[in-house]
Amino acid sequence: MSELTNNLIIRRAKQSDLDAIVSLWVELLDFHQERDPYYTLNEDAQKHTAKHIAGTIDSLKSIVLVAESDNIVIGYLIANIQQRPPAYKGGALVSISDICVNGGSRRAGAGVAMVKELIKIADKKGIDRVEVGYSARNEHSVAFWDKMGFKPFNVTAALDRSELQ
Fold first, then answer.
1. Domain-by-domain residue ranges, the chain?
2. Mean pLDDT across 138-154
3. Looking at domain 9-163, which CATH architecture does it have?
4. Residue 3 pLDDT > 60, yes or no?
5. Average pLDDT of 106-115?
6. Average pLDDT, the chain
7. Among 34, 145, 150, 159, which is most exposed with the fewest C-beta within 10 angstroms?
C-alpha cells in the first residue's frame, strides 16, 4: 500500500490540469492494453483525448475531479450527468467514464476519495444514482468497485472479428 506524503486534496479539475490528466490517461490505457489489445492507442490518441477532456472540464454536463498530493495531480475522475429516458421513473444519473491514480500512489485512498467526492456532488444536485463501466479484465478495477459497493447490473459482452466463425 502506498502512502501519500501530504494532505490529499480532491477538487474540480481546471484547464491547467489538462496535461497531467492526459498523462494519467495514457498510463491508464497502457495498463489496460497489457490486459487486452482492444485498448491499443492510435498515434494521435493523446491529441484527440486532450481536446475531449478540455471540453469535458468546461461542460456543465460533466464532473471532472483531480486528486492532488504535494501540489501534484496524482489522479483524476471523469463523470457525465445523464438524463434517464422519459419512459423510466427517476431523473438524472451520474456515469463515471474514467478514473485513474498514478502507479506510485495507488491503494492509498485517492480513488476512494474521488468517488466519495463525486457522490457528494451528485447528492447536492439531487442525483440518486451513480454508475460506472469498467473492464472485467482489470482485476484491480473489479476489486475496487466491489469494495466501493458498486454491483453489476448490466453486462456488455464482445466478440472480436478474429473470433467470428
1. 9-163
2. 90
3. 3-Layer(aba) Sandwich (3.40)
4. no
5. 90
6. 89
7. 159
